[in-house]
Design goal:
7-stranded parallel beta sheet, Rossmann fold, alpha/beta, binds nicotinamide-adenine-dinucleotide, 14% strand, 264 residues, single chain
């Protein structure tokens, strides 16, 4: 049986590590030709380890000229792009007593403008072919919940969710879908860095606390986002558009942390 994404050409940003790597691995396993894009040169190593005709680009998604150049090369090599996964993102703590403008702008530039740039560069080609799947990596942080220090990050993810819906309206008539993925906590270099920022002396305490708050009792694994992304990117998901898909191990469920909890 052919894979779910057989003969599809997919581009995943932020694919050198973490969730993007998980998405790239699952999409490749399901038959897609995967193009990996990342600012970090580790992207070449990750692409090589996928063991198929994966192509890698070292690109900063916040810089439109770099993204446009990549789009030109992708079109020259493959002639089309079926699936665009805007996953590249950053998260930095911003304390409310030090609302750093530069950090605000960094979230905006990478998370929001980076997503905008990739859509802008590839959407004309998708419109021409009347086919495309756009997946944007939002988060539960912002659209659903927040932790302290997340104002820059939450703001950018709220914007990504809104952008996802706006684009969905504009491209529906071309048969292109646009959906957002809203992960809870997944154990990636980003989360380990945030735990380190929160408690430099004992980041493990932060990680244990996160896992303890998840009804399924653990962090998500990047490949589990990959399975969701692969489905949403497939032809089987043709009727989903403009939606937000939460994947959080039930973390958003608890109403209290005491009611119904019996100490034995
Ligand atoms: N890990 C989580 O718990 C979690 C939860 C919700 C949402 N997310 C989102 O998932 C996505 C991936 O997060 P992650 O946890 O894997 O992060 P990560 O830091 O582990 O990996 C992010 C990747 O994006 C790349 N990147 C960063 N800035 C870039 C830029 N300007 N251009 C190109 N590449 C760039 C990095 O080099 C890195 O390889 C992000 O959008 C993040 O906000 C993560």
């Amino acid at each position: 049986m052919a894979g779910l994404l057989q003969d599809k050409i997919a581009l995943v940003t932020g694919a050198a590590m973490g969730n993007g790597e998980g998405i790239a691995r699952v999409m490749a396993a399901k038959g897609a030709t995967v193009i990996l894009a990342d600012k970090n040169e580790k992207v070449f190593e990750t692409a090589a380890s996928l063991g198929q005709a994966a192509t890698a680009y070292q690109v900063d998604v916040s810089q439109y000229d770099q993204v446009a150049q990549m789009a030109e090369q992708v079109m020259a090599q493959f002639g089309r792009l079926d699936i665009l996964v805007n996953n590249a993102g950053i998260a930095r703590m911003i304390p409310v007593d030090n609302m750093d403008d530069a950090l605000r702008d960094l979230h905006y530039q990478v998370n929001m403008v980076g997503t905008w740039n990739c859509v802008k560069a590839f959407i004309p080609h998708m419109i021409k072919r009347k086919y495309g799947r756009i997946l944007n990596m939002s988060s539960v942080t912002g659209p659903r919940v927040v932790d302290p220090g997340m104002m820059g990050y939450a703001m950018s993810k709220g914007a990504i969710s809104a952008f996802t819906k706006a684009i969905a309206m504009d491209v529906a008539k071309y048969g292109i879908t646009s959906n957002a993925i809203l992960p809870g906590y997944f154990l990636t270099p980003m989360v380990m860095h945030s735990a380190q920022e929160t408690d430099p002396k004992n980041p493990q305490r932060v990680l244990d606390g996160i896992a303890a708050g998840v009804p399924l009792g653990r962090f998500g694994k990047p490949e589990e986002i990959g399975y969701l992304a692969a489905f949403l990117a497939s032809d089987e998901a043709a009727y989903f558009t403009g939606q937000e898909f939460v994947i959080d191990g039930g973390a958003g469920l608890p109403e209290t942390n005491s009611m119904g909890v019996v100490n034995d």
